[in-house]
Structure formats: C-alpha cells, structure tokens
Amino acid sequence: MGVDLHIHSQASDGTLSIAQIVEKADQLGLSAISITDHDTVAGIDMAIRESADLSVTIIPGIELSCVQDKRDVHILGYFIDYHEEELLDNLIHLRDSRASRAEDMVNKLRDTGLDISYEEVKECAKGGSIGRPHIAQVLVKNGQVVSISEAFNKHIGAGGPSYMPKYVLEVTKVIRLIHDVGGVASVAHPGVSGVSEDFLLWLKEVGLDAVEVWHTEHTEAQTQQYMELANKHNLLRTGGSDCHGLGKSRGYVLGSVEIPDEIIASLEARSLEIHTLRNKS
Length: 281
Ligand code: AMP
Ligand code: FE
Ligand code: FE
Ligand code: ZN
Prior knowledge:
The protein is an alpha/beta fold. It has helices at 18-28, 44-50, 85-111, 118-125, 132-141, 148-156, 171-180, 190-193, 197-205, 220-232, 263-280, and strands spanning 3-7, 32-35, 57-58, 61-68, 71-78, 184-187, 210-215, 236-240. The protein contains eleven helices and eight strands. Strand 2, helix 2 and strand 3 (57-58) form a beta-alpha-beta unit. The longest helix has 27 residues, at 85-111. It starts with a strand and ends with a helix. The structure holds adenosine monophosphate, fe (iii) ion (2 copies) and zinc ion.
C-alpha cells in the first residue's frame, strides 16, 4: 500500500523508463502512482498500458514550473484530461522553448571551452522534454565534470556562468490551464521552494487546490507544518518522492516517502467537482 504522486521518467529528465517505473511501483505494492514529467504527458498512455494487469493505478499528472516574485514555484496537476488540445498546445510551446534554451546554454558552455554539443544533449533527452540534467549528463560523459552536482554547482545551476532561465507560464495561467483540463493543482515541494503561509493563501486565491505535504526533501517539521497549513486553509494534500531515477546526484527513491492512500479519493472527488464546474460554464 501507499502511493507516490511525484515521479519523473525518461519522457523528461528522469532516467527510468515508464516500464521500469510501473514495474518498481508494482513490486513495492503501491496502490497508485503519478508520472509527473516536466512539461510533457508523453509517458502517461504507456504507463496505463504497462499497468493494465497490475493493481497499481496510474493517475495522469504533470509538473509545470513558474516564477513568482523571483522565486521558483512548481505546480503539479493531477487527474488531468491529458489529451486535451489546449494543454498539448501549451506543452509544445514550453518544450520548444526548453530546446532553444538548452542550445543557448550549450553555446555558453562551449564559449567557456567545454566539450559539449547540442546534438549530444538532444540525443541524451531521447526525444523527451529537454532539461539541465541532460546537459549535466553530457558534461559528465565527456569528462568535463566528475558529477551531476559539479555540473550544476560550477556551470548550470541558477546564477552559474552558463545558466539561462527558461520560459515559463505565470502561476495563475498554469492553475487555470490545469483546471481547464479537469485537473487538481498542487504546489510542489513547498518546503524546498520556501512557500510561506501568505504565499500559500495567495495561491489559494488564484485557485490552488492542494499542497504537496510529503516530499523527499521535507523535514518532519516541514511535513507537519504544511499538513497543518493545508488543514487550516482547507487545501487537499498530495505527496511524492520526486524520483528522477538512478544515476542522479539527488537520489530520491521511488516509493520511499510514506504517503497515505486516502489522499487519492479526495483528489479524484475534487477533479470531478472541477469537471462539473467546467461543464456548467
Ligand atoms: P530545468 O527544468 O531544465 O531548469 O532543470 C531543472 C531540473 O534539474 C530539476 O527538475 C531537477 O531535476 C534538476 N536539478 C536542479 N538542480 C539540481 C542540482 N543542484 N543537482 C542535480 N539536479 C538538479
Ligand atoms: Fe526534474
Ligand atoms: Fe519540482
Ligand atoms: Zn519534480
């Protein structure tokens, strides 16, 4: 039992394939998982197919990045109608922008004398949503740094010499988009993003439904804090490992965070409400 609602696959910057993720979730006996890739829903259909004869349920999900008041805020969407054109159009634009940003970052790295080409980065992303982890992996492969963390610390971390911000949608737009496709919006790893009570209230005002209470990087105190804030402000709770697979500097492990099964029913109920409201308007 247990669930994991925050997992990245090879469709974005994770290293596990969809088949590996579903197999692992099944072995662990998880009742539900969500593949929440950055800016893509490309892994969801395959996950549903892979799980057909298993007891693990796949909840369609996504993770979208935003910047608000100079802070990174990530929004997770659950129970999204992931075939809707409005969503897909926005995602194509986000992924195209990721690709050109990666190319620009590669040029900056080359300007500082490092051995890397955009072709290699594209190859590493295997047709999926390109992110800085792919650039980091190529830098490791080419012997330009010894580890993924060194790549981030020295070159491509925020503020680093070859860092470039990516194009993102506004938080209000992201939450609206998730609602438009029947999804439930949750703020990801609020402890990591430094989400205050005031900011959480603002997010709620613009439509936020839930808070990611459980996350690999949350301390017990943070988990408690966000659980209380969620209860106090009538927000739903979500949680996940944020697993990016093996070979990552931050080895978040699939299924390693204890998260109660009950959260699924409340998320599904909220999604049904959102669908009903959408059909009325
Ligand atoms: P991007 O969306 O292209 O800006 O890349 C952000 C992703 O890079 C995050 O989702 C993480 O997977 C990864 N990441 C960010 N910071 C680090 C870090 N310091 N070390 C390793 N991976 C990181
Ligand atoms: Fe990531
Ligand atoms: Fe995130
Ligand atoms: Zn994530």
